[in-house]
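ok trying again, last paste got cut off:
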Amino acid sequence: HGARWYLFTLYILVYFTDILDGYLARKLNQVSELGKIIDPLADKILVILVVIYLYYFDLIPAIYFWIIVLRDLIIFTGGIFVSKKIGFVLPSNYLGKATVFSIGIFIIFVTLGFNSNDIVYKVFYIISIGLSFASVVSYGARGFKEIKKVNNETV
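nice, full thing came through this time. structure:
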């Protein structure tokens, strides 16, 4: 259980410093194109590493592991493709932020020892999976819309 508490503490620390970093960047008008790439990439790396740990120690089911990993890979690679086509990085939207938040809450509960027998585990498991699918569809639709807009402007 010691490793779980270490993971929990580290995850909480990184999670809240990321929130603070984003807040300060917007508040101080320090948002940059590079930051729009690096911050979500760091978030995805953190989530994937933690999900790998939880899966390795059999604390989450394989399906959850694959949904989260594939979601992040699809959104990241799709984001690179779209940004090359349109010339800028699409900012995250509220659905994406809600998805990351729900995954974060689920991870926190799992590191605290909640499991599939607990209602809070089940609730955030279902919410985070549902939001994961919705966010992939949302980012895909936004990306295609922006590409179409750029293509129409260049005709």
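cool. The mean pLDDT is 90. The helical segments are 2-27, 33-56, 62-86, 94-111, 119-153.
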